[in-house]
């Protein structure tokens, strides 16, 4: 992302996708749902709350209530709701991240963690000693502490303009979250938001497949063989999630898939 400003609109996020998202933080879609064992990675007792898209009750597995509020605010600025449809908050991206961080991906089960931990090149990807869960917990705490110190309120309670400014400071690495580089934390948040907005809904985000509908992605159809020769035909069907494992009809006339 380098020194580019945060783009609050959908087109900016889609452009970020075309620039390439480093694979070190790619979501493990078979993530387990076990809770973190380390005490520093557990929410405080009594902080669990229902969270999810509007009208859907869902108990938090990793975030406490304050962390969930901060993540809601962050993802709402990275992919905001606009005239094209719901944003990341409405799509349940916080629930997606909560699920992933509570499982094997959050605890870094697939990470090599023996060290030494040296600064790497951009091509080498993530090089820190923190697991994703440790990074998220430390980063959110540092962001709220910095916002309280400078603005007198936690991040979730700031105006949209101040929230954007904090994201810009983090993106540029100018926010001091030592020992966690704020630019690395920002990149993890951006990647996680994009993943949650476009992942299959069975993993907690992309509620009602709003991300897929935005870009015209058909989802997990079993076969596209009937449509291979239909050049230039517009696809007007409804996306299909992996969880919808039943015969379905293509948006192109005459295309039936099972």
Explain how this protein is built.
The structure is a single chain. This protein has 258 residues and is mainly alpha-helical. The chain has two domains: 10-215, no CATH class; 218-258, no CATH class. The protein has helices spanning 10-19, 65-78, 93-101, 132-151, 160-171, 182-198, 210-215, and strands at residues 176-177, 180-181, 248-249, 256-257. The strands form two sheets. Strands 1-2 form a two-stranded antiparallel sheet. The protein has a two-stranded antiparallel sheet with strand order 3-4. Strand 3 (248-249) and strand 4 (256-257) form a beta hairpin. Residues 1-7 and 18-48 have low confidence and may be disordered.
Question: What's the gist of this structure?
Answer:
The protein has 258 residues and is mainly alpha-helical. The chain contains 7 helices and 4 strands, in the order αααααββααββ. The longest helix is centred in the middle third of the chain and has 20 residues, at 132-151.
